[in-house]
């Protein structure tokens, strides 16, 4: 005597949000010391259920992050804004990790560039 049990699997991802970024890598190129080091990664929800970004983790204290906090409905867009401290001279490459309720819950975004040296202080001493 034996018994067979069958369980139906429910596809919970069928209506799940789908996060699609316009780009996942941004290159600032060479930027001046102390200039604007801000970029917005734009994303769209290609799923059915509302997309919620739960958290964005940065890789160092030299980076600030902000993101769309309200749920993003189907076919609507949001942003993840990064700000790099451009008073740190030299090349950089940083990652941020976006955690959401999407089908693929974790996305890593990268930004890179190089900050030029600060301009030398000019003295205005009279010529001798």
- DSSP helix count? 0
Report mean pLDDT, rounded to a whole number.
88
Q: Give the proportion of residues in helices.
A: under 10%
Low-confidence stretches: 122-128
Oligomer: single chain
Order of helices and strands: EEEEEEEE
- Tell me what portion of residues adopts beta-strand conformation: over 45%
Radius of gyration: 22 Å
* Alpha carbon gap, first and last residue: 111 Å
Characteristics:
128 residues; mainly beta; four-stranded mixed beta sheet; elongated; disordered C terminus
Structural notes for this entry:
The chain is mainly beta and 128 residues long. Helices cover 0% and strands 45% of the residues. It contains no helices and eight strands. The strands form two sheets. Strands 1-3-6-5 form a four-stranded antiparallel β-sheet, with no helix packed on it. Strands 2-8-7-4 form a four-stranded mixed β-sheet, with no helix packed on it. A hairpin with a 5-residue loop joins strand 7 and strand 8. The radius of gyration is 22 Å and the shape is elongated. Residues 122-128 have low confidence and may be disordered.
